[in-house]
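Render this sequence as a predicted structure.
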Amino acid sequence: MKPFQIFKNRYILSTVILLFTLLIIDDTTIFKMFKMKTELFDIKEENIKKQNEISNIKTKTKQLTTNKFALEKFAREHYLMKKQDEVIYVFDGL
């Protein structure tokens, strides 16, 4: 049996052409589908991280708007605010 004799069957030939088109030529090849699937997985992980960050910021905002001492601590640490009779020393990180 010759190797090219199998391609004389039109069903096998059409199947081979279809597979070739799907795997290599088409815009949505198997390789691109795999790449898009990994990108989707990475985006979903990033989305979960961002949602956790948003919830942390919401709780911190709620705490700052309701707790006077937390607001004062935040202002002192981030904006270097002080009371009138205080002196602040800022140490730069090593």
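Summary. Residues 30-66 form the longest helix (37 residues). The radius of gyration is 32 Å.
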